[in-house]
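Hey Z.,

So I finally got round to the zinc ion thing we talked about over coffee. Here's the setup:
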Amino acid sequence: MKNFRILTTELEAIKHQMEQLCNLFRAEFGGDGLKNNKLVLKLANCANKKCPYCPHGPYWYRAFFNTRTRKFMFKYIGSSLKKSMLKGNEMQHWDRLKFYDNEIKRLKKEKQLIIKELKKLEK
Ligand SMILES: [Zn+2]
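And the result:
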């Protein structure tokens, strides 16, 4: 069985890969500029400030401009992308979007296995 140090190092590596995946998605799909309905892939922090598993996700969101705050906000649309969630010409990028979606699934599965091992050690 792996020790705590190895598992936490692996966990950090997975978190890093998830961040890289979000960066890659952003670079491929329009950079940092936001506009209404823009599809966004991002990580999320939970309410627990000491959560060792944060950030969570990445999840899919749509950007929308909040006229009151004059800022873009993000509406959660799901943890995995379905064709029915796409808008406009996004369908033509389905293969690439699915690539990201599959990468998310793969990384989340790896993360879950590491967390499971860590929880075993805590007992
Ligand atoms: Zn958390």
